[in-house]
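Hi R.,

As promised on Friday, here is the backbone we talked about, encoded as structure tokens. Could you run it through your design pipeline when you get a chance and send me back a sequence?
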């Protein structure tokens, strides 16, 4: 049998960013070689689809994401990342390990099912789900259900959480760029101050969102990064804001997108400056099927696992592209430790490995 704790540690040591998961893929493929009854499909980019065709009827698809996060680890766990500036700070090492253990259990039990196991690259803002779907490979299979889990340090190990309907928000990453004209600050009238335009845009947008989206109609628009200028005594020729906007419905998303465009144009006209919005990664909202949720709750009760009713969250997850196409279910898997509250995207995030066996057992019940 596989030593899943060791596998998780090995995966944790080699985090790779989206579409760079070469070592990760090689390691997983070496493990899968030890299992019978599998057909392995690969792509011209990192990613693995494992086919288990040993039953009648449609296929169930189980997905784990592969990529790490661009952050420097600070866990002192003894199996830290060997890749400086990269870390499995979102728990994808746990997700992959659980899927590996699940595949092994399916093979060992000679399960009479048609199953697909997907190791998906580039979940963290690089469009891995759409890249997989656009290959058309999944169209070769009649898929009735699709599942994924996501670890959560805010939930105790041994517990899970989910909800029916909209679970995770749709998300759009953007860059807003203002391009002016540089000039020495002593002759500022000869330039066009891009920083001034960027600051004005930021403040104006916050005010407009509060007006157009009253309390009770939840959306967010946040900018976590802003760059402008090259020296301290010159009018900045360019200002770039990087951020994200998120909503739970398509209608709110479109309304918020239009508002951002309008404010950008208004500020550009006011400052007589060029401006553009660059649209980057986009995730569909994750929508859970109510029948599959009932199935999860039933098996959780059967296993003695506490089920928590989850709230909608502004978290982004490209599993939404799968729930758009198939009946799907995503659930939180608790990995919280009593003395460690660090959660996703923290350099201190270190999920409880006891959750691995729990994840494997839940997936096995869902087939």
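Update: got your reply. Pasting your designed sequence below so it's all in one thread:
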């Amino acid at each position: 049998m596989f030593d899943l704790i060791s596998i998780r540690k090995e995966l944790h040591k080699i985090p790779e960013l989206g579409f760079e998961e070469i070592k990760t893929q090689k390691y997983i493929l070496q493990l899968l070689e030890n299992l019978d009854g599998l057909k392995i499909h690969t792509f011209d980019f990192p990613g693995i689809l494992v086919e288990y065709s040993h039953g009648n009827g449609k296929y169930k698809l189980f997905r784990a994401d592969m990529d790490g996060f661009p952050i420097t680890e600070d866990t002192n766990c003894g199996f830290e990342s060997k890749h400086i500036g990269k870390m499995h700070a979102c728990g994808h090492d746990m997700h992959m390990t659980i899927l590996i253990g699940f595949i092994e259990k399916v093979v060992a039990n000679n399960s009479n099912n048609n199953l697909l196991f997907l190791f998906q690259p580039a979940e963290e803002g690089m469009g891995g789900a759409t890249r997989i779907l656009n290959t058309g490979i999944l169209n070769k299979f009649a898929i009735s259900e699709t599942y994924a889990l996501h670890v959560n340090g805010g939930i105790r190990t041994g517990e899970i959480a989910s909800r029916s309907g909209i679970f995770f928000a749709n998300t759009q990453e953007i860059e807003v760029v203002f391009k002016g004209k540089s000039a020495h600050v002593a002759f500022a009238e000869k330039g066009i101050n891009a920083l001034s335009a960027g600051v004005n845009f930021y403040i104006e947008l916050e005010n407009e969102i509060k007006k157009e989206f009253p309390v009770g109609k939840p959306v967010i628009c946040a900018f976590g990064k802003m760059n402008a200028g090259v020296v301290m005594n010159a009018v900045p020729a360019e200002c770039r804001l990087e951020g994200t906007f998120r909503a739970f419905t398509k209608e709110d998303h479109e309304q918020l997108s239009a508002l951002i465009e309008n404010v950008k144009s208004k500020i550009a006209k006011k400052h007589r400056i060029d401006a553009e919005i660059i649209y980057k990664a986009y995730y569909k909202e994750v929508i859970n099927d109510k029948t599959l949720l009932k199935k999860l709750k039933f098996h959780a009760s059967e296993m003695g696992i506490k089920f928590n009713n989850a709230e909608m969250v502004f978290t982004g997850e490209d599993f939404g592209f799968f729930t758009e196409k198939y009946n799907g279910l995503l659930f939180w898997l608790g990995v919280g430790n009593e003395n460690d509250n660090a959660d996703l995207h923290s350099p201190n995030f270190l999920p409880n490995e006891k959750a691995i066996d729990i994840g494997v057992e839940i997936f096995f019940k869902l087939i």
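One thing I noticed while checking it: The chain has two domains: 4-169+285-366, 170-282.

Thanks again,
M.
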